[in-house]
Structure formats: C-alpha cells, structure tokens
Predict the structure.
Amino acid sequence: MKAKPMTKIRLTQALVLSAVALAAGCSMAPKYERPEAPVATDWPGLRLARSLAVVPTGASTAVQTTAAADIEWQSFFSDPKLRLMIEAALRNNRDLRIAVLNIEQARAQFQIRRADQFPTVGAAATGSRQPAAGGNISSVYTAGLAMTSYEIDFFGRVASLKDAALAQYLATEEGRKTTQISLIATVANTWLSLLADEELLAITQQTLATREESFKLSQLRFDNGATSELDLRQAESLTEAARINLAQLQRQRALDENLLTLLLGQPLTGELAAALPAGQALADAPLMVDVPAGLPSDLLTKRPDIRQAEQQLLAANANIGAARAAFFPRISLTASAGSVSNHLSGLFESGTYGWTLAPQLFLPLFDAGRNRAGLDSANVNRDIAVAQYEKAIQTAFREVADALAGRATLGEQLRAQQAQASAEATRFKLSDLRYQNGISSQLDLLDAQRSLFAARQAVVQTRLLQLQNQVTLYKTLGGGWKEPVTAAVATGTTRP
C-alpha cells in the first residue's frame, strides 16, 4: 500500500519544527577561552613581609583562614557606630541606588532579547475596500490571531544577542557589588579620618595651651630684660603655628564630616549624629579582622570588578556570533488565523474561518560592506574587552600588593614613631627642667616642644594609615559585598 503524500499544511509544520530544532543548537559565536592572567604567581608584599619578619599590629591576632570575599562586612567591622554608618549608606547612597537601577535596566534589556526568541501573537483586525473588475468594489474583512515577523533563528543571531544581553546584565550585577565594596570602604575610612581629626584636634589644643603659657612667660621675661626679643618672637611664632594647625584641623574635620554626609545620603542627625566620633582616640578603635591574602589567581573569582570585566568580554564574544550570523539568510514567518468575510456584518458567521502563512527568506547580496564592518567592529570590541579584562586583573594585583606592602611596614613604622614620641616627650621634660634651672636656652626648650608636637601628630597619622590600610586590604581582596543569608533573602536578589 502506498503512503499518502503529505499535505502542504503538514509539510509546512514539519519545516517550522525542523527550523526551531536547528535554531536551538546553532551558534556562530567563537568558543570562549578565559585569557591568561598577566600577573605574577605570588604577592610582592608577602615577600617583603617575610624578609622583614613583621607581624601586623593593626589587626586582631586571631588566625583568620576565611577569604576576605567570604567575610560579611558586619563581621569585619566590630564597632557598632561604624556599622550604623555603613547601614545608613547602603540604604541611602545615590551611587549605590543608581547601580541597583542599572541592574533593573539591564534585566529588562535581557528580557527583551529573550522574548525575541519566541513568536509574538496578538489579536488583529483588518479591513480593505478596493475597485474590482466591472466597476464593483471588492471588500475583505479579517479578525483573529496574528503572528508578525517571527525570525526562525537558524544561525543563532537572536540567541547570540540574548547571550550578550545576559552577560551585560550579569556585569551590572557585579558592578553593583563593586560599588557597594567601594562605598563601605570609603565610609569606614572617612569615619577613621574623623577619629584621627578628633585626636589631632585634642593634641593641637593641648599644644596651643602650652605654647600660650610659654609665650606669656617669654613676654614677662622680655619686659623685665631677662631675654632678648629673638626668644620672644620665637615663642610667638610657635604659638601662631599652633593656631594655624588648629584652624586647618577644624576645616579638615568639617570636610570629612561633609564627605560622610554625602556618602550616607542623608543629614547626620539623630542616632547618626550620636555615632560621630567625639573625644574617641584611634588607639581605642576596635580591631578589625586580619584577612589572608590568598593567591593572585583567587582574585579572578573573588573580585566583582574582575568578574564584571569578564562578563563584558563574554558579551563581546556573543556579539561576534550575531555579527557572523548576519552574513547568512534570515528567515521570518508571518501567520494569522481567524474569520474572513467580504461583508463586515458576516465576519463572525459560521464557515468564515481562514488562515494565512507567509514565510520570507532574505539573503544579503549587497550591503555596501555593512555586515563586514559590523563583524570587524565586533572583533575589535572583543579585543578591547580582553585588554580591559587583563587591565582589571593587573589593577587588582597592584592594589592588593600595595595593601600588603602597607601591612608589612606600617606596623614597624608605628612602633618606631611611638618610640620617637616617647623620646621627644622625655626630651621636652628635660629641656624644660634645664631651662628652669638656667642651664639651657629658651631656644632649646622651644625646639623640643616643636619636635614633640610633630612626633605626636606623626603617631596619629601613621596609626590612621595602618587602620585604613586594613580596610583597603579587605576591599582589594573582594570583601564587603557579601551579605548574611537572611539579608540576601530579604532583598530578593535573583537572576533571570
């Protein structure tokens, strides 16, 4: 018995199903291979630390084996006032808010590209009247469902555009994490700067009071002819220098407070005002967790900015696939099904059902080099993305190496400057005693006073650098974006 030939409808359905099946597995995008990391296999800062045999003194002595990127910022910063500031910044900072909105925009763009892989079906109604033979008027009315210009993705053009949009969406997610890391570190460093401002203001006010007393005494001795005008003007100069330092520090504290206000995105009132440092010294600041450096290769998976650069590289790679597919035929399908009638009044009567199916194939023959230029542009964009990815790795390597160098040396620098400040304090006491007993000149006393003031300032500034270096190391190792599980669930962060 001979098989019956397939009808045109069944043949068309078979062709459509075959086209969809082929489109699902076809892609013109080149195979992605992660570029080699153009950095060394070890940190130069670690070699420096080993050579100095220095143990960091600005961090907790507890051994920490968890990577920085896996330590929530709530665990890294133990000071409740600082955590309050960071929480306010995460709620209200405008840069972070923009980064979150960029994610929403990229998600919408991805959903648009994903929707292009499916046919768009909607209700449609048409009507046309035109002259016919014999002077009559021909009328045709239709109403029903219609599918317009659905592209059958034989060569993966639409799929490649969807993959590129997905990679861009994931890149914006990583960009949001990078913004959060920078925000947390900047808030912490600004808060530490305010602590240093408070301590330096206290030192300067004490020094100014001492110098004012010395100046009064010098004035009295000059009036009685016991000293020369040179000693008097020297004492006056040091007093005015202390006033200059006091004014500079007051201005710097105001600037740091203004910066903190900008970072938090709201005025420093209420509990935030109460959380500002007031009379608290840097030495009393709670210690932060000492994080391990790990290996340079760990940064590829720990640093959101490197992952962002890699996602942008993946997007550029997918765009090459779309540009290649533009050289091949593009097949689109238009179809409709519904009621057809020559009279509007009989449009929905029985027996008026009809359908249309109109496939279209377009093969580019001459486009003045448009497709070739598009492919060249896609290839160049991929090369640019590779260079940007490699630069992101090199920049991250340099930042971590700088922070490790600071951790290896700032502890010893702080110890030495504390010893120097202690020696200068003893020197000042002895100079004052010698001056009171007429053994040394006032010039020696003023010089000792000036050296003591500079040494005390240097101790505060070095301690600030050490604490800020701890924050920077935590930031450069990718710490600060991870939230506790409960917080992550509350934000409803999901991928499409």
The radius of gyration is 37 Å. The chain has two domains: 29-117+155-328+372-491, 119-152+333-362. Confidence is low (pLDDT under 50) at residues 1-25, 54-63, 487-495. The chain has 13 helices and four strands.
